[in-house]
Amino acid sequence: MPTAKPATGALPVMADVARLAGVSHQTVSRVLNDRPNVRRETREKVLAAIRELDYRPNTAARSLVTRRSQTLGVISFDSTLYGPSQMLYSIEQAARSAGYFISIASLRYQDVRSVREAVDRLRDQAVEGIAVIASKASTVAALAQHVGTVPMVAVGPTDPGALSGAGVDNQAGAEAAVRYLLDLGHRTVHHVSGPADWLDANAREAGWRGVLTDQGREVVPSLRGDWSARSGYEAGQRLARDESVTAVFCANDHMALGVLRALHEAGRRVPEEVSVVGFDDIPEAAYLTPPLTTVRQDFAQLGRRGLELLLQRVEAPAAPGGREASGAGHRAAIVAPELVLRASSGRPRS
Amino acid sequence: MPTAKPATGALPVMADVARLAGVSHQTVSRVLNDRPNVRRETREKVLAAIRELDYRPNTAARSLVTRRSQTLGVISFDSTLYGPSQMLYSIEQAARSAGYFISIASLRYQDVRSVREAVDRLRDQAVEGIAVIASKASTVAALAQHVGTVPMVAVGPTDPGALSGAGVDNQAGAEAAVRYLLDLGHRTVHHVSGPADWLDANAREAGWRGVLTDQGREVVPSLRGDWSARSGYEAGQRLARDESVTAVFCANDHMALGVLRALHEAGRRVPEEVSVVGFDDIPEAAYLTPPLTTVRQDFAQLGRRGLELLLQRVEAPAAPGGREASGAGHRAAIVAPELVLRASSGRPRS
DNA sequence: CACCTGATTGTTTGCGCTCACAACACAGGT
DNA sequence: ACCTGTGTTGTGAGCGCAAACAATCAGGTG
User: CB-CB: which of A58, A92, A258 is closest to B287?
Assistant: First the structure.
């Protein structure tokens, strides 16, 4: 088991393997790259030599000559939130099984300058494509300016503007949640939204508003949150003071959690007096007090689909006519969300 | 603002810059690498040419000759959990500001084979060092076998066995929590632990057990969880049935959340009848019902300190005597946790 | 038997860069 | 006039690999 090796300072190179196997370095290269036209016997000799020396090809040399880095970049802005960290994970898994390395660039701020820096950084590394865990509309717009320089896809929201991508149908999810609440008998539904300019937040709000409008319900002003439990709590305090509130749709689970807390503090019972519905289905949702009705997103699938799209672009036979990616295949993979019913929602009392 | 460039298929190389600036390629290289002994005027001519061509150095060529990849690897096992994703983020930030790229390898399973694959994968990429977001003792042991081949540090638990690293003092945190509960007047404290073999879980359990033993309290058997809210919920159901339980220390916040849920369902009031304390201080902790007393970990600092240690190893003047890293500088940076008091804990009734 | 075909292997070249070394100019001291 | 040192620039080589091309050998074909 212990790798027996002379441990001469220098690492073995292809020529060493070739010498040991009694072939030319080119034959070693052929074996390494699974080229045809190598005799079985020869191939095995080479493989044995590789094992014996614990040889590993030098990626720098390889990519210098092939002009391919086998690396994809991921730009992430809130890799600390539940959704983004899930997506990052599934992207990495998918990339690995496709034979790519993953290099990450996570940004603290979403200003144009940071975006540019991240793209530059990844380009310096010669990534072959970039997956963006997208969030704000303006950020995606900034990113889109670089789309000519390197293949790029967005992972997350359905409509990332200028970028192709894989996304959850936020609007459909929101609609399902709101329709469900109205069907239970609520006269209208309040909304705690995500931060302005966020794609997911906007789509969810649009879905909410759309259903209310379509059904001729009163559209109460939504309360603006920032995804955090704290902001949900603050919104919840305001909602709790309003006796007419019987149903609240929150743009994510963490805010819903804060709303639940605020309602509890104010003595308003959930679901008897107020129904609360979230979005995401974080693993804790089922264990909140009360367990949270929510809209589930399949983040893992999102990551996989997004990466598929990216690889299509990366491996596409380089642009037939001119600059690729311009208008051509502006595709999107849309993943359907699922409403998960739990105890935080029910019929209104009256 | 728009990058005016001829967009001839081929990217500019150093020779192009040299020609445009009227110098030799070597001078361009000197400018790029901030070498001294370049006249100001010359340097500026070169920089202008670089800007004009939007030239960017080819990293593959550079690392072929320098034998440095400027890349660090991160191995993560549960990049989806709160703590690990935080640490990943802070490691990335720190690496960037030190001028390194980050390549990640996140594993689904922690068996020896997966570990070996991850290390191989990163070595294939010629990373200069590896930061491990450590979790299980056996995994760290498996990793430690590779420590001779590439600098490696653990980020997370205090005592990662054979690896150096930066960690939170789990034991001290647990001790503080348990002592606090005992000081409130509880006769003993129950424990919902993390999964067996996990370093953090073991240290926290040891801290809990130590204080009870020291103070001559009854050491009740701990309940084994798996970090998830679900497992906390199941443990909570059992604890709720036991009337003698007045205080519970949970090895993380998500399990504490499950415990809270179970106690609530069973009609046992928190903190009046039972006090609950968690570990981590997730952002939601303050908004649970009731707000959770917990032990805060500074994950950001952990990541930073861990990376510092790694860079020390990476940039150390390559091994004076023989194989480095063996016994030499087995250092660890220990970060102190902090007990955060909230409403889920209080004096027992009697 | 000369000739072509395809499978297998080897030789040469160059990817873009940094390093070691050489070359040159210009200062001051002898 | 010479040498010596210092700052500045250029030249040549080679990092490890894959692509293009060349060479060799076997087995047909007419």
Answer: A258
> Which positions on chain D have an atom < 7 Å from some protein CB?
7-12, 14-20
* Structural domain boundaries enclosing B142: 68-166+299-333
> Token pair for residue B262?
């179970």
Query: Is residue A186 in some structural domain?
Result: yes
Q: Looking at the partner chain, which of A56, A92, A124 has a beta carbon nearest the beta carbon of B104?
A: A92
Q: Find the CATH number of the domain harbouring A239.
A: 3.40.50.2300
Torsions phi, psi for A339 (to 5 deg): -80, 125
**Structural domains of chain A, count:** 3
Cross-chain residue pair B105–A123, CB shorter than 8 Å: no
* pLDDT band, very low/low/confident/very high, at B23 (cuts 50, 70, 90): very high
Same domain, B322 and B276: no
Residue A44 to residue A38: CA distance in whole angstroms: 10
The two structure tokens encoding residue B316: 């150390």
B246 membership: H or E segment, kind and range: none
DSSP at A151: -
Q: Are residues A198 and A146 in the same domain?
A: no
CATH number, residue A26? 1.10.260.40
In this structure, are B307 and B208 located in the same domain? no
The answer to whether the CB atoms of A106 and B93 lie below 8 A apart is yes
pLDDT band at B144 (very low <50, low <70, confident <90, very high): confident
Residue A149: per-residue pLDDT: 86
The CA distance from A215 to the nearest CA of chain B, in Å, is: 34
What pLDDT was estimated at residue A160?
67
Residue B92 corresponds to which amino acid? Answer: E
Which of A239-257 are b and which e, b meaning 16 or more Cβ less than 10 Å from the residue's Cβ?
A: bbeeeebbbbbbbbbbbbb
Does residue A238 share a domain with residue A203? yes
Quote the DSSP letter at residue B286.
G
Query: What average pLDDT score do residues A191-197 get?
Result: 94
A119 CA vs C16 C1’ separation (Å) = 22
Q: Using the predicted structure, report yes or no on whether residue B95 has a pLDDT greater than 70.
A: yes
Residue of B nearest to A104 (CA): B102
Considering all nucleic acid strands, name the nucleotide whose C1' atom is nearest to the C-alpha of residue A66. D18
Report which of residues 43-102 in chain B place their beta carbon less than 7 angstroms from any atom of strand D: 61, 64-65
What integer is the mean pLDDT of A274-294? Answer: 96
Sort A108 into a burial class: Cβ within 10 Å, 0-12 / 13-18 / 19+.
exposed
Q: Write out chain A residues lying below 8 Å of B256, CB-based.
A: none
Q: Is residue A349 part of a domain?
A: no
User: Is A263 inside a domain boundary?
Assistant: yes
Same domain, residue pair B92 and B41? no
Is A249 part of a structural domain of the chain?
yes
What is the Cα–Cα distance from B284 to B262, expressed in whole angstroms? Answer: 18
Confidence tier at B327 by pLDDT (50, 70, 90): very low
pLDDT reported for residue B162? 73
Cα–Cα distance for residue pair B16/B28, rounded to 1 Å: 10
The per-residue pLDDT for B330 is 63
Give the per-residue pLDDT at A8: 54
Determine whether the distance from the CB of B15 to the nearest atom of strand D is below 7 Å: no
Please report the residues numbered 8 through 37 in chain A whose beta carbons come closer than 8 angstroms to any beta carbon of chain B: none
- Do both B174 and B282 map to the same domain? yes
Nearest Cα residue in chain A from B95? A105
| A64 in contact with chain B, both atoms CB, cutoff 8 A | yes
Compute the nearest-CA separation of A108 from chain B (Å): 9
Residue with the two structure tokens 């390494």: A32
Q: How confident is the model at residue A140 (pLDDT cuts 50, 70, 90)?
A: confident
**Residue B24 contacts strand D, CB under 7 A:** yes
Judged by CB atoms closer than 8 Å, whether chains meet at A106 and B85 is answered as no
Cβ–Cβ < 8 Å for B42, B30: no
Q: Quote the percentage of chain B above a pLDDT of 70.
A: 92
pLDDT-derived band at A5, boundaries 50, 70, 90: very low
